[in-house]
Amino acid sequence: MSVRLGRVLYWLFNILAVAILFWPAGNPWEFLTGSLDPSENNLDTIISIIAAIGAWLIGRTCRYVLAGE
Do residues 51 and 8 touch, judged by C-beta distance below 8 A? Predict the structure, then answer.
């Protein structure tokens, strides 16, 4: 039972991480490719990338602890 729960939580947090990544009004790929306008405030994009990484790490931790993978 815990193996399945670990895998389900892992996938849910992956979906959440993708949703967080695309949440800002701007395109996160502009940040990653360096094609942003330097005059714009890109703090929301940076925060969304950090939050997405955090959500992904929480999912990985759930999978490791509950599923042993």
Answer: no
